[in-house]
Each structure stands twice: as C-alpha cells, then as structure tokens.
Amino acid sequence: MSEAQDKPAEGRKIPAPAVTIESKPFWDAAEQGKFLIKRCNACGEPHWYPRALCPFCFSDDTVWEESPGEGVIYTYSTMHRSPTGPYAIGYVTLNEGPAVLTNFVDCDLTKLAIGQKVKVKFQATEGGPPVPVFSPV
C-alpha cells in the first residue's frame, strides 16, 4: 500500500442530511457545535438516532440531552476505493450507551483500533447543517 493510500481523504464532501421535524432540534444544535441525544423519561434509556418515540419502550415522553460526544470505536471499515482517497466509517459506542454510525476524521487510518477513545467533531456538508464525525482523543 502506498503512503498516499494511508492518508485520510482531503476535502471529501459529505452530503447534507435530511432534516425532519423530529430531527430539527438536533441539527440546530449541531450548527452551534452541540451534540444531542434523546433520553426517555419513561424507561430512562438514552437513544440515538434522535426520534420522538423511544425505541426501547415506545413512549413518546422523550427529552433532548446534550452529550459530550465521547466514546469508543465499536467497529470500523476503511474504504480504499474512493475518488477522494481512503476514508473510514464505523460505529462509536457513546459513554451514555447508544451506538452512532459515523465517519472517522483527522487521524491516521492505519492506526484506528476497536476500543480506541474518540470524540465528536462537526464537519460541514454540501448545503446543509454540519454532521457529527469522530476523531481519536
């Protein structure tokens, strides 16, 4: 593998997310650099992706909660065949418990590891709000 293949993609564009009535508070907070998750008042479980109904007990008594956006890599995959160069995607298990599907940025892709500590950042999108991405701590 060449040295160029080991470097993260520079300038890889991420499409704008779909903003719905349910998710709008999340995207508004993302524009301010805040990472929100939902917590159910009925069963107490935090969940991701933010939605009105709790995926555990189906209660509609859920509230927004700011998360520090810290966790560990649960799994990941490095994509080598890309016009913009290699990039990595995977799941992060937040310290609160939920798993987040994400991109990994600002790192040496060859040094990513399951169990590695990561923290949220926000990356600009093409014509929409910034999206959460994660980088090693």
From TrEMBL:
Pfam family, one: zf-ChsH2
Highest taxon above the source species: Bacteria
Residue ranges annotated for the ChsH2 rubredoxin-like zinc ribbon domain, each copy included: 27-61
Gene3D superfamilies: 6.10.30.10
InterPro entries per the UniProt record, alphabetical: ChsH2_C, ChsH2_Znr, NA-bd_OB-fold, Thioester_dehydratase-like
Domain ChsH2 C-terminal OB-fold: 64-123
Protein known as: Zn-ribbon domain-containing OB-fold protein
Organism: Phenylobacterium glaciei
